[in-house]
Amino acid sequence: MTGPRSPGTARTDAELLRRSRTDAGAFRDLYERHAVAVYEFHLRRCRDPHAAQDLTAETFAQAWLSRGRFRDRAGGTAGPWLFGIARNVLRATVRARRIEEAARVRIGMAIRLDEGPPAAMPDEDWLDDDHALLERLPTAQRDAIRMHVVDGVPYDVAAGALDATPEALRARVSRGLRALRHSLANGESR
Question: Where are the domains of the chain?
Fold first, then answer.
């Protein structure tokens, strides 16, 4: 059960996660803070509102199960931690779908025409974090691009996680994307 809360008491995500070990209401507060951003993260990748809802639910289920392992590395915010979980949930889902589809093809089982495709599949480009071009970037630019562009983490949250100001993070993303565009324009291979 949750105890009374003081009006106007702002708690950090880290505090909510600590309290959630004994107070489920604290986790609910964390969910309410981040659910929309996590949902939008999934929706941008799978483009299916129902799948995004399922993935969001799974993300928070995994967060609940691993809340005792949370380490505050982003100044009190759990955003980067939650987006890491969301990314892992999406990867696992895509891998499972690939395995199911390969098995279905191998045994000759067709998808029923009245069912349509199994579920919306996200573009697979975002899964490949090891693009050679991205790996050639300086670490600060690569991390900034992964966190803001790939994971969709807002600049202010990503900046806190990467120990930078939002302005510095914007500059890193801009420089990194410019370098990637230049490499692609020059026909460099991944």
Answer: 11-127, 129-190
**Other C-beta atoms within 10 Å of 11: how many?**
17
pLDDT single digits (tens) 88-145 = 898 888 877 777 676 666 665 555 444 444 444 444 454 444 467 778 889 888 888 8
Provide the terminal-to-terminal Cα distance of the chain, rounded to the nearest Å: 53
Tokens of 101: 């589809």
Instruction: Give me the pLDDT at residue 188, please.
Output: 64
Do 68 and 17 contact (CB within 8 A), yes or no?
no
Residue type, 95: R
Domain 11-127 grouped into CATH 1.10.1740.10: yes
Write the secondary structure of the chain as one string of H (helix), E (strand) and C (coil). Answer: CCCCCCCCCCCCHHHHHHHCCCCHHHHHHHHHHHHHHHHHHHHHHHCCHHHHHHHHHHHHHHHHHHHHHCCCCCCCCCHHHHHHHHHHHHHHHHHHHHHHHHHHHHCCCCCCCCCCCCCCCCCCHHHCCCCHHHHCCCHHHHHHHHHHHHCCCCHHHHHHHCCCCHHHHHHHHHHHHHHHHHHHHCCCCC
- Residue carrying structure tokens 């107070």: 23
* Domain covering 129-190: architecture: Orthogonal Bundle (1.10)
Lookup: tokens for 159: 């900046």
